[in-house]
Amino acid sequence: MSELALLGGSKAVNSESGDMFPRPIVDKWESRITDRERFNRQMHFQNVDRCFNMEFGYWEENFTEWPIFKNNGITNNKDANLFFNFDRIAVIYSNGIDQTFDGWMYPKFEEKVIEERDDVKIIMTSNGVLAEVPADGHASIPHYLKSSIVTPEDWKKCKEERFQRNDPFRKVNIATLQKLHPEKRDYPLGIYCGSMIGKIRDMLTFEGLAYAVFDYPEMVEDMVETACLLVEDYLDQVLPHFKFDFASGWEDICFKNGPIVSIDFFRSVVVPRYKRINRKLKTHGIDIWYTDCDGDVRPLLPYFLESGINCLFPFEVMGCAHPGELLDQYQGELRIMGGFDKIQLGGGRKAIKKYMETLIPYVERGGYIPFCDHLCPPNVSPDDYLYYLDLKRTMFGFDSAIYKARRNV
Question: Phi and psi at residue 118, in whole multiples of 5°?
Answer without folding.
Answer: 50, -120
